[in-house]
Specification:
This protein is of the alpha/beta class. The protein has a domain of 76 residues. The chain contains 8 helices and 10 strands. A 6-stranded mixed sheet has the order 6-7-8-3-9-10, sandwiched between helices. Helix 6 links the parallel strand 7 and strand 8. Helix 3 crosses helix 4, helix 4 packs across helix 5 and helix 5 runs parallel beside helix 6. The two termini are 24 Å apart.
Length: 262
């Protein structure tokens, strides 16, 4: 299994970098600091979990990184471009071509089949009809639903619906996958299966994943790094046991290969 790049590698590029980002909302004469002076870098290939209590700013921060909202202050750089300076059309292209989104609610269209739901982003992006079928099949194979293409959402379990939503997010082959409470509507066993799938996607595809969750114990098992929010501010970041274990395994494998080559 391919290991994600080391966070300490000097050659590691960044998927997204935030520099002193704030998002303030006016409520009458009061200013709500939903995100307040946050600086954070997400290396390419990392699985980052954003943690915090309700109202901590974690979902607002994710929406800013995904181009769904604009910062009041600060810069958000992805692919060499500052999202804060992009036009509405350029932001729409960023969301279409660079990112995939998964939400707590599956947001599947009930009258469409699984295949049609996954294909929808390709139709909106005006991808050639001849290419769409292969892209849909590829996305469904990643989530192991290739045999359920003709089913409608009501015929799928909650876990299968979320896997369909993940396939839809992957179909445009994004560089960054954003997930906002992807296990929030699922039981614990199914939620764990979804996070296992996200981890597989990260390692097999080299995908950068940023996930909002309140389930710290699962984030520590599946993510590479935790970023904890509170009152709109970034309180701390820490490497997880999962990441440390992956790095240790990579180092052992490297030593074995080096020894075998001598």
């Amino acid at each position: 299994m391919t290991q994600p790049p080391s966070l300490n590698s000097p050659r590691q590029s960044n998927a997204i970098s935030l520099d002193r980002v704030s998002r303030h909302y006016a409520m009458g004469e009061t200013s709500i600091r939903a995100v307040d002076d946050v600086s954070l870098t997400v290396p390419s290939g990392e699985f980052l979990a954003l943690l915090g209590s309700s109202g901590s700013g974690k979902s607002t921060l994710l929406n800013l990184m995904a181009g769904l909202d604009r910062p009041t202050f600060g810069s958000i750089v992805s692919g060499g471009r500052n999202l804060a300076e992009l036009s509405s059309l350029e932001l729409a292209r960023y969301r279409r071509n660079t990112v995939g989104m998964v939400f707590q609610s599956f947001n599947l269209l009930p009258r469409m089949t699984l295949e049609e739901n996954v294909e929808l982003p390709l139709r909106l992006a005006e991808v050639e009809r001849g290419e769409r079928a292969a892209r849909v099949r590829e996305a469904l194979e990643h989530v192991r639903l290739a045999k359920r293409t003709g089913h409608r959402p009501s015929e799928l379990s909650g876990g299968e619906q979320q896997r369909t939503a993940i396939a839809r997010a992957l179909v445009n082959r994004p560089k960054i996958l954003f997930a906002d409470e992807p296990t929030g509507n699922l039981d614990s066993a199914t939620g764990e299966a979804i996070l296992t799938l996200l981890r597989e996607i990260q390692t097999s595809m080299g995908m950068t994943i940023v996930m909002v969750t309140h389930e710290r114990h699962l984030a520590e098992r599946f993510a590479d790094r935790l970023a904890t929010m509170g009152d709109g501010r970034l309180l701390s970041t820490s490497t997880t046991v999962a990441r440390a274990s992956a790095q240790a395994t990579a180092e052992i494998t490297s030593h074995i290969k080096t020894g075998a080559g001598q």
